[in-house]
Input
Amino acid sequence: MSETAIENDEHGNILTDFDFEKKDTNMMMAYIWFGIVAIFLGGLAGLLQIMQRSGWITLPNWLTYYQLLTAHGVLLVLVFTTFFIMGYMFSGITRTLDGKLTSRVRNLGWIGFYLMAIGTIIAIILILTNDGTVLYTFYTPMQASGWFYVGLALLIVGSWITSAGMFTAYIQWRKKNKGKHSPLFAYMTVATLILWIHASLAVAVSVIFLIIPWAFGWVPRVDVTLTRVLFWYFGHALVYFWLLPAYIYWYVNIPQIVGGKIFSNSLPRLTFILLILFSVPVGLHHQLNEPGVESFWKFLQVILTMMVVVPSLITAFSIIATFELAGRSRGGKGLFGWLTKLPWKDARFITAFVGMLFFIPGGAGGIINSSYQLNQMVHNTWWVTGHFHITVGAAVVMTFFAVSYWLIPVLTKRVFTKQLNRLAIIQTILWSIGMILMAIVMHFAGLKGAPRRTAHSTYGDHELALSWLSYGQVIGIGGVILFIAIVLLLYIWIKLLFFAPQSKKTIEYPIGVVREEAGDPPPILEKWSVWIGVSIALSIIAYAVPIYQIIFNNDPGSLPIRSW
Ligand code: HAS
Output
């Protein structure tokens, strides 16, 4: 569905006659606002921690490296992502379904928001008091205050209620539009939320039934292997919960921005179905070097990991096809002439495009990580930190920045001016340089053995550890540039929230139109029960035996450890 474009403003924005209802806008803005605060605080923690790790500063007694690392991880990859994603998906669901939400859906959206917000605040207070310094993976037997886990549980339960709101909107639309296939944005949102709920059930079971009773001292010991396996059941799918909304932008919004059409109406749906199926039964590839699980099951999940790469490769080729069609329809000739016709000066496009470029080495690095033997080389080194900064920290987050450059103006009815667009492009350049210096160099340092999750140390001036020092300096500079980029981003957002010129009309909410030649999607792709069933079956095949073995191997469990 495309909007009715009525005119262009002097900054080149397309103005439309579409308006969200004020009540809906308020709810979406609440999510976006929380995300903005989280990214700033998380970025600040990142800056301090990288400066400590590079040996540039000594932290005061009341603040430790691991506390900052926990705050950085929780605020950025758990809090910022979840709030921003929910706000963005709510906006797209509203825009492509009925244009407005029913009060039932909106109420669920608000209840979810408050639970998530309360949970986050509890967890952050515990991190600040140094009672939750267990990193974002909260690996047992490190034990935080029970309230830290209660906070995280509320964040997850809140997100389920938010999801219920979006499911309700989708079900209401389908009842009114029997026999029609749903708009692509809504379809992809539903797929993302199915994946999220399936995966997060495992971590909720672990937190509520295993970790919380142990952390409050109701039971003395915890089964470490079981909690870690349940964490990674969730933890790998979590990365696709970040990635899929970025894919929604690439598949659905960007075609409109580049002046093209959506390449196919079925392929994106198939991609998301494959991601539902294969993103969960692969978590053991994070534990290839851990004891307690038979290698057969690890190997099986390595094979399934190679399957989950397929939808990303489909995405790569589909997006390039979309760009080519757009470039050619704008007069691009020859083998690569279409590239010159893409809107390189539009921050809504270029920021996400650079994110896509980062995802090429990011994805290749992921394949290296998941190759059983190669994992021994990179596991627990800075390589992995580099990998996730160019995947989530670049590909995904740069896409979210691009989304914010039109979503905030749509919600605030302010104008994304030429000057803000220029600043956004500078922000993209800074972010890219920062990521190259920090995350790409981390890969090399990791190959030389530099460990992740460790504070600055020269390990008694050991020769090997000294060889990491020069990498640390470059990585530190990258981290500082990234923080400067966050400050610039904040400036742009504050302008868009409060100070950019107000517009009477709303700027375009870019929803691409599917190419006329593309056929209708086969109805089976929207039979969710089938795919949920297959997904559960695959997870049972991959996990039932190892989990059974862990539970019945008479592991005495571990007493708590406070390592900080
Ligand atoms: Fe990963 C560790 C394997 C993708 C995030 N990963 C992590 C951690 C995080 C993370 C946070 O197997 C650390 C967790 C922790 O704290 O311990 N990862 C993979 C694999 C993929 C993968 C196989 N990871 C991601 C994504 C993430 C993410 C996405 C966040 C969003 N990862 C691992 C493994 C580990 C791991 C192990 C554990 C390592 C260890 O030992 O601890 C795959 O999904 C990647 C597939 C992607 C591709 C790329 C396709 C390229 C595209 C861009 C196209 C470009 C265009 C532009 C269109 C094959 C789609 C070009 C246009 C032109 C015109 C030229």
Q: What stands out?
A: The longest helix spans residues 295-329. The chain has 15 helices and three strands. Residues 137, 239, 242-243, 285-286, 305, 308-309, 312-313, 315-316, 319-320, 323, 356-357, 359-360, 363, 366-367, 369-370, 375, 378-379, 384, 387-388, 391-392, 396 surround heme-as (CB under 6 Å).
